[in-house]
Amino acid sequence: MTVSTLPILPTSVVGSYAIPAWLWAAWEKIEAGGFGAMDVAETENDAVAIAVRDQEHAGLDLISDGEMRRQGFIVSIFKYFHGLRPIEPRRKVGVLSYDGHVFYEPVERLSAPAGLGTLKELDHLRQVTTRPFKITLPGPLTLATQITKGGPYRDRAEIAADLATLINHELKALAARGARNLQLDDVYQSFIMEPKRLAELYDRCFEGVLVSRRFWHICFGTLEGFGFGERTYRPLFPTIASASADQLVFEFANREMAESELWREFDCPKELGAGVLDLKNFYVESPELVARRIRRMLESVPAEKLWINPDCGLARLPRHLAFAKLQALVTGTRKVREELIGRADT
Ligand SMILES: [Zn+2]
Fold it and tell me: From the CA atom positions of the chain, what is the Rg in Å?
C-alpha cells in the first residue's frame, strides 16, 4: 500500500511502541557493558521486528519502527550531540518524573557530526515492512528544555536555534534518502514556549525538506503518566495554522475529547491526527468508544483531513495493553469508515 492509496480516516501511531519484557532486561545488560556492538544491533533489530509486526497485525495503515533503538523519547538522542556535559539529576530517589532526568550543560557550540541516528532506522524499516511509515524526532525547543544555558549560549532560545539547524540537516538527509513521512514531537509547555516561536522553530527544521507529509505531534507530556503544564491547545491557535506542518497530531482521549471544536472554530487548513486512545488509563477502549470519539472529531474536522492515532507514544504501556488498544483503534475506525461510505452511497 502506498501513501496515495491510504483509506479514508487512515490509522497511525505517534511513534514509540511498548517495550517487550526481554528488551528491558537486555538494556540492563547493555548498560552494564555485557553486550558487544553486534549483540546490540541484533537486539535492536529484533525489537523493531516485534514493533512492526504488532502494528501490522493490529492493522495500522502507517506505522513506525516503535523507536525501539531510542531507549526513551529524547534521552538517547543526546548521545549524538557533541558539546554537552551531563549534569547529575537533582532527584534520584522515589517516583521517576521530569525532575529525575539528566540535564546537560553546553561547553561549546553544539554539533552532531555523525547525525542523529535516524538514517539507519530508515534503512532498516525499508527492509522489514512494505507499509508506509514515518520517522520521528524530538523538536528543538523540547530538546532545549533538557539543556541549561552556558558555554557560548546566553539562553535556551539560542540553544534551540542551533538544535533546529542540526535537526534540519537530519531531516534533509532523510528526505534525500527517500523518507516520505517525517514528524517532530514537542511537549507543549505554554509557560516557556510562545506559539510563534514554536512554529518558527518547526519551520526552520523543515526548511528545504521535501517529503509527502510533515507531521507535528504536540502533546502535554506523558512521562510515567504525568503531563507537564496546562493541557489546552487553544493558545496555539490561530498561529499554529501558518506553520509548515501538513498534519498536527494532538492528544484528545485523555482530555475526554476537549477542544475537538478547534478545527471548525479556526477553520484550520491542516490535517489532524486525533488521539483517540487514552494512554494514561489502564483499560482497553472498546471499538465502540473509539468510534464515538472519532464521530465527535468528525463534527469539527472534515473526514478527508482526519487521521486516527493514540494520544501519544506507547512506550510506557505494557505490550499486551498497547497491542489491544491498537486493535480497538483499528476496529473502531473501520466502523466509522463503513458509516461514512454507507452515507456516501445513499
Ligand atoms: Zn506525546
Answer: 20
**Could you give the CA distance from residue 306 to residue 270 in angstroms, rounded to a whole number?**
9
Distance 313 CA to ligand 1 centre (A): 6
**For the whole model, what pTM was predicted?**
0.95
Cell 497485525, located at residue: 57
Q: How far apart are CA 24 and CA 32, in angstroms?
A: 13
What is the average per-residue pLDDT within 303-318? 96
Nearest to 51 by CA among 275, 306, 323, 241: 323
66-92 tens-digit pLDDT:
999 987 656 689 999 999 999 998 899
CA of 77 to the centre of ligand 1 (A): 16
- Specify which residues 104 forms β-bridges with: 86, 147
The string of DSSP codes covering 278-318 is -TTSSSPPPHHHHHHHHHHHHTTS-GGGEEEE-SS-STTS-
Domain ranges of the chain: 3-345
Residue 38 alpha carbon to ligand 1 centre in Å: 31
CATH of domain 3-345: 3.20.20.210
pLDDT at 55 over 90: yes
